[in-house]
Amino acid sequence: MKNRDEIMAVRQKTGAGLGLCKKAIAQSDGDIEQAIRWVASQGKAIASEKSSRSATEGRVGAYVHTLDPKLGSMVDLACETDFVARTEMFIELANDLAQQVVAYRPSYVDLDSVPSEVIEEQEAFFLKQAAEEGKPEAVAAKISEGRMRKWCQEYCLLDQPWINDSKMRVREAIEEKVASLKENIKVRGFVFIQSGGNTTVG
Fold first, then answer.
1. What are phi and psi of 11, to 5 degrees?
2. In Å, how far from its chain's centre is CA 25?
């Protein structure tokens, strides 16, 4: 009975299938936190394997802020089949991503979607900043890389802390669903809307 409770706890936390959760508990000797990390690692491996597969189906997730209805967003989430696009898990993920966009207001989907001139400008700024702090050139370069990663965590959707679990990145949350649904899943784009204000298209 206890083993079943552990499996259900992992399933509730990750959204992964029962089979994967059962295997995770077995691999971790019943340690729920370790099992959750194991599911995440499996999601990363499966996502990498399926990343080259065509994702031409999907749906639009949408969210309007419950306390401030002037704020809303839409996310174009892609998958491989119409069957998966209609599943409760995929629909929930699309809508959660839309809520993420309203809460964290990213400017880009990921680093690959950031214009090269913006990347160059940020890198130059961080290098100059580190140099002005008196850091040697080699150290300044490493500091610049670290600050660029933090910049991505603020402005790139997939690198942001996941709204449902701040210990995870959005990318990892999607990878967990890839592990469960066995299909390539990717964010094609998003729109953040502020009525009477700015609209961000990422």
1. -60, -45
2. 24
Query: Which amino acid does the sequence have at 96?
Result: D
Same domain flag for 147 and 125: yes
All residues at 6 or more sequence positions from 196 whose CB lies less than 8 Å from its CB, including other chains: 70
Residues 77-127 have pLDDT tens digits of 999 999 999 999 999 999 999 999 999 999 999 999 999 999 899 888 888
User: 95 and 163 share a domain?
Assistant: yes
Domain residues for the domain of 41 are: 2-50
Asked if pLDDT for residue 163 goes beyond 90, the answer is yes
Residue 174 · residue 166 · CB < 8 Å? no
What single DSSP character describes residue 95? H
pLDDT at 55: 78
Amino acid identity for residue 72 in this structure? G
Contact 176, 14 (CB under 8 A): yes
**Residue-level pLDDT at 113:** 92
For residue 172, give Cα distances in angstroms to 50, 57, 118, 193. 15, 21, 25, 25
pLDDT of res. 129:
85
For residue 151, the surrounding DSSP H or E stretch is helix 137-155
